[in-house]
Amino acid sequence: MKRRSEPGLHEQQQLREKILGFGEGSLRKSHYPELRVRLLELERFRFILDQIDLGILIIGMDHDIILDCNEETCRLFGKSRRDLVGTMIESHLHDHGWYRRLKAAGGGVETLPYHPSAGSSPRYLEAALHQVSFGGDAYLITITRDITDQKAASDTLLRTKDMFAAAFRLSHLPDASEGCILSEALQKTISLTQSRYGILGVVNPDTRFFTIYRSGPESGSRTGFSPIGKNGPWERILMGRGMPVIEGGTRMDLPITDGGSVVAIISLFEKAVPYDDLDLKQALYLGEILWQVILRRRAEERLRKLNAELEERVSRRTTELAIANSELEAFTYSVSHDLRTPLRSIDGFSLALLEDYDASLPPEASEYLHRIRAASQRMGDLIEDLLLLSRISRKEIRREQFSLSDLAAEVIADISSSEPRADASVHIQDGMIVTADRRMIRIALENLLGNAWKFTGGNEKTVISIGMRDDGITPVYIISDNGAGFDMAYAKKLFIPFSRLHAHEEFPGTGVGLATVSRIIRKHGGTIRAEAAVGGGATFYFTLGSKSETGE
Amino acid sequence: MEERIVIIRGFLMTVDTLRKFVMPEVIIGDGARRRAGFYLENYGIQRLLLVTDPGIVRAGWADEIRALADDHGVTVMIFSGISENPRTDEVHAGAEIYHRAGCDGILAIGGGSPMDAAKGISILATNGGDIREYEGVDRIRHMGPPLICIPTTAGSSADVSQFAIITDQAEQRKFGIISKMIIPDISLIDPSLLSTLPREFIAYSGFDALTHAIEAYVSTGSSPLTDLHASQAIRLLHRALPAAYRSRDDASAAMSMMLGSLHAGLAFSNASLGLVHAMGHAISGMYDLPHGEVNSLLLPHVIRYNYPASMERYNQIARILGASDEEIQEDGVSAIVDAIRRLGGDVGITGTLGDRGMMHDQIPDLAASAVLDPCLVTNPVFPEIEEVIALYEAAL
């Protein structure tokens, strides 16, 4: 009969060995290897703890006795581990308030200032306290680290930010007086350097006095003058080529210089801790900014004065010119107007002579009388044109929106009916809408189209076109003909009154028309010019102001 | 069968010549238990798991230990949920308490059951897992936390042994954990604790110890060192058991009982056991009978079976038990068996396993379980399963 699971001989032998204590586990029964591993771990951990730049303390919760600490703690306290372990934590603290507070609060973080030795600059510790429990007992663990450098860095950053804010504010006091800016600058410098008070002295242009700005707890800001003597601290700076002076940490004198010479001096007093390099740098920077602001202000002041003077002169001249202009216009008007009556008499009596005595007059005399009449009628036309020009000059334009195309068609119809012509073609571009003084523009068109009609009179075929070119800003209106044209050498004289480029016999006219057109266009804020060639027709380009001006 | 023995014996004699002796620190004598406080401190224990049973708690000894611990600033968790035969879930519950309370040491006070449970908890404390994973020999890798034992019976010797017997109630079986790793750190043997033990338990545990000593003496793993302890154990128990049974106030008998049990423990922990325990473990896995009682009823039958393989040693035992040389010369087996029966009669152990409720039709299962017991490998004879069945039947 086979057994269910009879152990073989070999298995039995192994089992025996194990029962007799020769099994692997029994032979290896020892705490020591495990203990060695743990001790090694512990040593490693201690090594890590000692390498770390955090001070770590383990304190008994109930009795406040230091149970363990790392190297950094010893360094921070300046004591050996033997001096620390087993003693009351509070006996090592100058101020144990934080410890009690954090312990009472069950943990937390505080920043502590401390002085490693008398007279040295203060350092800052960050102390964190935690409650922990292990092995059934409660402990406090404090972790301290020296945050002096971080704190200094963040303080510097903050102070630099404040400095730039102050500088910005100083540069943006547009309406403040120079005194105001100086007082403000002094105040800012005092608060930046955490001084109790300060004095600012600006060297007067005659270098015999300082203008003094004070700020301080005694009486607020006040100003005064101080003669520049020989032996004061400020005088030493003036003599000493502008080197700043820090005296015993409680007073700081620093110059503001401009092109190598001292222009002002700031003195700061009684900071809670000694003045440092950063204080000096910041105050110097602010002083520099201040001086730039003052200089800019002074330059701006001068410029403002000059501008005011110039404007005053211009306006005086403009007024004078306007008076002269209106006087001239009044003169022109009254002359033109007053000339009409005698002229009418001349023409009237010449006509009477011709009608009443024509038969008795020698033909030559009649001929002269006709010439007198023609001349006086031309003069009448001239006077009418001058009056029109004068009226237009004095009249304000009244803009309205209307179709230039329609108006041009209207004018052409008038002209062609009063002076019909067999073969004439007039092209008018549709839809030209303008905002302008309709009556004035009609006068301008009458002149321009009249000229075109007139100067094409000698042609077999009359071709006139009216159109526009629009660049989106200022539309240009174009009137061209295929008439006699003119020599471009005289183009400049074209729009001057009484300038005529053609003999009256060839093409009659007063020489005032284009001057009137030009006046109308200019009154609209536009321009006009012409292009032509002798016998090659003429083209006039004019504008009526930009769209933004005309409100289109 | 003869051949087998020869083979095993021959094998053993040629290869298996090394012997090892492991024992815990021991303090024995009246008031030894009160040294517990000192040892708590010695092992740096701050939170102690005290493993015991309700009887010990009622007797006030758990509180006594607690007071001692308090004096040394040690917090005590008492775990007294241990049955007569410690169960796997009790071990797991104890380990759970141990971990939850953040304990760092164990003290067991009581008979074999709390001490075996404490060993199980100690295994789980450092090795984790399920206690069934550690069944067998030398299966434990990590040493447990400090374990202090205070035995209140003179029999199990769990306080000095490498054995822990746990009941797997789900499978209705007992399994053994055997490892030098679970030998306690200190045994505080205090004979005065015996004074409250019921009389029949004096008898059972006394026979438990006697069986340990006899099996260790004839064990193929025995050595001169274990022989010394085994023979001294038999000598002490033979003399003291009837006196201790008669009068629980007999301090000298109580001391001899404790000492005898200690000697037996040292012997069997190092030499291991044999067929009686293999068969006994199988029975108490199935029936809730006192270990000592079961062993005492199996012992004569196993001796008869083993006798031819280890005549000299059995004869020597018979001599210690008071048999004369003539009796031994005449019939060695009867001499020793009679001596044991006489001792049993003196302390009220008579009858058979059948009287205790063992059923005939369970015997094949019991035998199947017994032949797999690790105790068997040091029995003088390696039995066939039929032989084990026959032995169970004889003891019925």
What profile does the largest beta sheet of chain A have?
6 strands, antiparallel
What is the structural class of chain A?
alpha+beta
Q: What is the H-and-E element order of chain B?
A: HEHEHHEHEHEEEEEHHHHHHHHHH
Coarse shape of chain B:
globular
Overall SS class of chain B: alpha/beta
Helix content of chain A: 40-55%
Number of helices of chain B: 16
Estimated helix fraction of chain B: 40-55%
Overall pLDDT of chain B: 91
**In which order are the strands of the major sheet of chain B placed?**
1-9-6-4-2-3
What this model shows, in words?
The complex is a heterodimer of chains A (552) and B (396). Chain A is of the alpha+beta class and 552 residues long. Chain A has helices at 9-22, 24-27, 32-51, 71-77, 81-84, 97-104, 148-171, 178-192, 233-239, 277-357, 363-394, 404-418, 438-455, 513-523, 547-550, and strands at residues 55-60, 66-69, 108-114, 123-134, 137-146, 197-203, 209-215, 222-227, 245-247, 251-258, 261-269, 400-403, 424-428, 433-436, 462-469, 476-481, 528-532, 538-543. In chain A, strands 8-7-6-11-10-9 form a 6-stranded antiparallel β-sheet, with helices on both faces. Chain A has a 5-stranded antiparallel β-sheet with strand order 2-1-5-4-3, sandwiched between helices. In chain A, strands 13-15-16-18-17 form a 5-stranded mixed β-sheet. In chain A, strand 15 and strand 16 (476-481) form a beta hairpin. In chain A, helix 7 (148-171) runs antiparallel to helix 8 (178-192). Chain A is elongated and about 175 Å long. Chain B has 396 residues and is α/β, with parallel strands linked by helices. In chain B, strands 1-9-6-4-2-3 form a 6-stranded parallel β-sheet, with helices on both faces. A 3-stranded mixed β-sheet of chain B has the order 5-8-7. In chain B, helix 7 packs antiparallel against helix 8, helix 7 runs parallel beside helix 11 and helix 12 (311-320) runs parallel beside helix 14 (332-346). Chain A binds chain B through residues 1, 3-7, 9, 12-13, 15-26, 29-31, 34, 135-136, and chain B through 7-8, 11-12, 15-16, 18-20, 22, 46-47, 75, 102, 104, 137-143, 162, 178-181, 220-221, 270-272, 368, 371-372, 374, 377-378, 382, 384-386.
